[in-house]
Amino acid sequence: MIDTGNTGFMLVATSLVMLMTPGLAFFYGGLVGRKNVLTIMIQSFVSMGITTILWFAVGYSLSFSGDVGGIIGNLEHAFLNGININDVITSAGIPTYVFVAYQMMFAIITPALITGAFTNRVRFGAYLIFITAWLLLVYFPMVHMVWGGGLLQQWGVLDFAGGIVVHNIAGMAALASVIFLGKRIFPDKGPHSIPLVALGTGLLWFGWYGFNAGSELQVDAVTATAFLNTDIAASFAGIVWLIIAWFYEKKPKFIGLLTGAVAGLATITPAAGFVSPTSAAIIGIVAGIVCYFAVSLKNKLKLDDALDVWGVHGVGGAIGIIMLGIFADASINSAGTNGLLLGGTSFFFKELVAVLGTSIYAFGISYAMLWLINKITPVKVSNTDEENGLDEALHGEAAYEMI
Description:
Elements: H1 4-31, H2 37-64, E1 88-89, E2 94-95, H3 96-114, H4 124-146, H5 151-155, H6 163-181, H7 194-213, H8 221-249, H9 254-268, H10 277-300, H11 309-327, H12 345-376, H13 383-388, H14 390-395
Antiparallel strand pairs: 1-2
């Protein structure tokens, strides 16, 4: 029996998560220079097409059907074979097609997150090969292991909306790409349009309610808690980042406020439906502090993670999982468990081991893929193309008329 209320809510949540990918394109587009706006934006938008095709063909099936060694699913539902239009996820009363679409939106934005790290450096063809291989070898197995009945889920690891599955593994892939590609020869002088960054942040923040609250798959008290926790963590993290940056950089920077909010959103994601609002506030504070200094460490190490994907999403996702291990409260969500503060020592260590193991996996496979792709076709653009800007060099288009 279809629950029309839950189904309507999940269709809205799916639409909100879809909107996050264009939001990310605006967020990243504003942060780069004028000559590279379209290049970074098309990398987000093309993921909507490539990932949808892969998800329909094999992605959903590899993530959520069968089990091969606890690592990956099978091809039982390839091309959505065997899924009937009237099939329903009985626990929530939503059509299976709605769940397929909702999870597809997660798959779309995850590889797009990585692109902020290697901005201005990667050839478009190599990027298309990379995201295809990355989805098949990193994202789909991770979804299966954590959410699709694989070994981490069987072991008791929790991740409400994607601390491991989305943010941490994207951040580790970003770090691998930065190390593989090296520094830009001609780095951007700074964000070319802070209003675009603000627009992107607003769309991301708005879409994140579907990302986190929608992960309950139905409307109940946990949905409301996840929704509230999302805003609390983002707000605390944004203000904390603003204050820290104000102290060290002597002026309150708008970019700092926006980046801090995104760090808070990434960090609360795995815990949103498993912790109290008070814990969400603490998680937001920790996110603002830790992610700010992670970015500072990246700068001191001279790693050219152009848009701080590792420091915000990689570190944010990781500490979110660790914070979940500390603050999880079974009284908030009966499908969860108690964290370290409530006696869940075993659960805390499971979360810790999971984030360490998946980080190593995502980094290693991502680096190996880039190395192999580079043997087939050059991954990095030429110095001339980098200097002239990739919009014209790669795509023959320009975001602005250059006077």
